[in-house]
Amino acid sequence: MRGATQAKFAAGAIAIALAATACSSSSSSSSGSGSNANGVVTAWWGDPQNPLIPTDTNEVNGGAVLNMIFDGLQHYNPKTGVAELANAQSITTTDQQHFTITLKPGWKFSDGTPVTAHSYVDAWNWGAYLPHAQNNTDPFFTSIQGYDAVHPASGSATAQTMSGLKVVNDTTFTVALTQKFSLWPDTLGYSAFYPLPQSFFTNQAAWEAHPVGNGPYVIKSWTKGTGMQLTPNSTYSGNYKPKNGGINLKVYTDPNAAYADLQAGNLDIDNGLSNTALKTVQSDLNGRYLNQPAGINQTVAFPLYDPAWNTAGAKLVREGISMAIDRPTITKVIFQSTRTPATDWTSPVLGAEGGYSSTLCGDVCTYNPTKAKQLIQQGGGIPHGQMTISYNADGPHKEWVDAVCNSINNALGNTNACVGKPVGTFADFRNQIQNKQMTSAFRTGWQMDYPLIQDFLQPIFYTNAASNDSHYSNPQFDSMVNQANAASSKSAAVSDFQNAEKLLVTDLPSIPLWYQNGTVGWSSKVSNVSLDVFSVPVYTDITVNK
Amino acid sequence: MGRYVIRRLLQMIPVFIGTTFIIFAMVHALGDPVAALFGDKAPDPAVAAQIRQQLGLNDPLIVQYGNYMKGIFTGDLGTTFSGQPVTELLKTAYPTTLKLTLVAFTFEVIIGIGLGVISGMRRGKLADTGVMVMTLIVISIPTFVIGYVLQYLFGVKWGIADATVPEGAPIQSLILPGIVLASVSLAYVARLTRTTIAENSKADYVRTAVAKGLPRRRVVTHHLLRNSLIPVITFLGTDLGALMGGALVTERIFNIHGVGYYLYQGILRQNTPTVVGFVTVLVIVFLLANLLVDLLYAVLDPRIRYA
C-alpha cells in the first residue's frame, strides 16, 4: 500500500515535470510545435436529461454529444454561424414553400449502413409522431405539411407520416411546407433534423444504449451518470474531421469541482465555468481562456395577461423600468464582463447582415434614471404598488436580479419598488409561467436554435407561439413576420424581420438586458480551442500538444 | 433477544410506508415534472399530455403511490427521464457513498474517540485545551468551506491528492473527502467522549479497579472506556445515516457520483422514482443503524437486557 502510494507520487512528479517542459516548449515556438493526432481531450460534461435521440434532446449536454456523432443536411460554420451544405448536395425551391433536397452520395453511418433520403424522412416522421412524445418538435417540424395529422394539438394522431415529406429516390426527397418560409433551409443544421439509421427503428432500446450516427465521432463507451468516451469516426465523409484522437467527456456535478480539476491538470476543456471561477480565471490559466458573444440573450418579461400590466400607462412604466437599469455596470461588476449590454432582441452572433442591430432599442435600453422616474410616474406608478422579478433559485440568477432591482430602486428613490422573488426549482418556475400565475416581471432567456433572426422573434413574440411567455399579441407584428417568411431573398426576409422587431421597442413585452457570452478555459495540454456560435467548444478542432 | 429483533423489524414496516408516502407526496408538491423536460421553452401541450399519460401522472396521488408500491414489490423502482432504471442508479451510487461513509466513519471513530480520551484524561492540561480549541474551530466553520480550502491546498496547489475523485472512486482518493465529511462529527465525538470520560474517571468502579492494582491501560480500555462509550455509540449510530445523507455537500465538492449526486439531480428534475428510491434506502439504513445501536448497548452494558 505504502509502496504503491509512493510510486504514485513519483509518477505524479514525473507527469508534472513533463507537463512543465511541454508547456515551455509550446510557448517558445507558439502553435507550430506540432500536435499529437492520437491525443485524447478530457472535457467537461453534465448528465443528459433525456435519451440521446435528436428529436428528444433540447439541452446543452445532450446537444454537445449529438453534434459530435451526427452531421446534418447543413452545418453551421463554427466561426461565422452561416449555414453551409453538409450532407445535402443542394436544397432548391422556386416558391419558398416547396423544397427539393438532394444528398451527397457515399455518406455512411458509423455502423456501415448508407445515409439515404429515407434516413431523414423516417427520422422526421418518427420524431413528429405524437405517441413517441418527443419534446423537440416545435417549431422544427410544425411548418411541414401534414404535421397536424401526426401531431394534433388535442386528440390522437390520425396518420403516422407527414404528407409533406416525399422520398423521390435514395438521394432525393421533397418537402412541402404549410406556408412560405424563406429561411427554412437555414434551419436544417439544427439537431432535430439529423438522420437516423435503420438500426434505430428496428431496436430502439439498443440504439439508445449506444447511439449510432454519421458524424465526426463515434461513441466508444458510455457510463451513464459518469462519462462518455468518443473516438474519431473512420467512415465520416464531412468537412469537420477530428484533429485529435478522441474526446473524453466527464460528468461534473458542481462547476467548482470541474475548475479545481482544470487547475490540477485532470481536465482539459472547461466550458462550465462558474461565476466564482470567472473572477480569477485570467490569471489562474495564464490567458488560456476565451470569452465571446453567444446566441443567448437575457430579458425580463411582463405578464401581459394581467390587466394591470396591459394598459397604456403600464407601457410607459415598462419603458421607465428599462431605462432605470444600469446595464453596463451590472454586466461589469456581477458578470466580470461575460455579458454584453443588449441593444436589441437578437444576438451579435447574427452579424449586421443576419439582422443584429446595435441601435434598434436606442434610448429605451439606455440608462437614464431621471427620465425613468418621470416615465413611471407618468404611467401611474408600478402596477400592484411593487414590482417583483421572479427567477428560479436553482440557477445563478439571484445576484443579477438583486442588482437590477437595486438599480430600479435607486432610480426611483424607493428601496421597496422592486424585489427579487425566488422560486425553488426551474420546473416549478416554468409551471408558474405556463399556468399564467405571474403577477409581475419574471426572468426569461433565449438560446437560439439556429442563427437566424426569425428564431429570436417568431417563437417568442408571435401570437400564441410556443415560448410567448408574456402572451404578447400584436396583429401588425404577426403580419410582418408572415411577410418576412414569404420574402424571396434572405436580405429581404431579414429586413422585414427587423421591421417587426421595431414594434417591440414601443410595445415592450419584455426588456432586453444583455447578451450572454460563451466562456471556456483550457489546460496547457491542448491548443486551438474555440467556441462555435452556440458557445459549444469546437471539439473537432482541438489539438493535443506534443 | 431474537424476539426483540423481530419486533423491531416489524415496527419498521409502518415507518417504511409512512416515509415513502411522505416523500412521494412532497416530490409531487414540487410541481409538474413535465415542464422541466422542456428547458427554457413552453412545452407542447400535446406532447406534455402524452408524457403525463405514459408516466401515469394524471392519476390521483394515492393511485400513483399504489402503482409505485406495486412496482417496489416486484423489484421495479421506476426509471429516470433518460430511461435508466432507478435500481441501476442505486447500484452505482450506494457502493460509492458507502465507501466514502466508511472512510469518514473510520476517521470519526479513531481520531474522534482518541482525541476525546486524551483530553478527558488530561483535563485542564495543554492537550485538553488544544483539542477543545481545535474542535470548536472545526464545528464553527461550515463543511463546504473546509472542503473547498482542503481541495485547493491539497489538490490544486500542492498536488498531493486528487482534486476530485476519479471514476470508480478508489479508496486512496476518498481520504481527503472522508476527512472533510467526518470533520464536524469528529469534533462532536471528541467532545462527547471527553465529557463522559471526565465524569466516569471519578466513578467508584474506576477507583476500585485502580485499587485492585490493575494496569492503567486495562483500567482505561476495559472499565472506563466501555462505560463511557454508550452515549458516544448512540451518537455514532445516528450519525452513520446522517453521514450517508449528508454526503451531498462533500460529494458535490469532490465530484463523487454517489447518493447525494443522484438525489440532487432527481430533485432538480422532479423525478419522483429517483428521489423516493434513494430516500427509501436511506430510511432503511437509518432504521438498521438504530437497531444496531440498541443491540450494542446490551453488549457494552450488561445491565441492559432485551427480552
Automatic annotation (TrEMBL), chain A:
Solute-binding protein family domain residues: 90-467
Protein origin, superkingdom: Bacteria
Signal peptide: 1-19
Any one GO CC term of the record: ATP-binding cassette (ABC) transporter complex
GO molecular function: peptide transmembrane transporter activity
Gene3D superfamilies per the UniProt record, alphabetical: Dipeptide-binding Protein, Domain 1, Dipeptide-binding Protein, Domain 3, Periplasmic binding protein-like II
Pfam families reported for this sequence: SBP_bac_5 (PF00496)
One biological process term in Gene Ontology: peptide transport
PROSITE patterns: PROKAR_LIPOPROTEIN
Keywords of the record: Signal
Protein's name in the database: ABC transporter substrate-binding protein
Source organism (scientific name): Streptacidiphilus pinicola
TrEMBL record, chain B:
The family this protein is said to belong to: Belongs to the binding-protein-dependent transport system permease family.
Membrane topology: Multi-pass membrane protein
Record-level GO BP terms: transmembrane transport
One cellular component (GO) term of this entry: plasma membrane
Keyword terms: Cell membrane, Membrane, Transmembrane, Transmembrane helix, Transport
Membrane spanning stretches: 12-31, 100-119, 131-154, 174-192, 224-249, 275-300
Protein name (record): ABC transporter permease
Entry-linked PROSITE patterns: ABC_TM1
Compartments it resides in: Cell membrane
Species whose genome carries this gene: Streptacidiphilus pinicola
Keyword Membrane: yes
Domain ABC transmembrane type-1 span(s) in chain numbering: 94-297
InterPro entries: BPD_transp_1_N (IPR045621), MetI-like (IPR000515), MetI-like_sf (IPR035906)
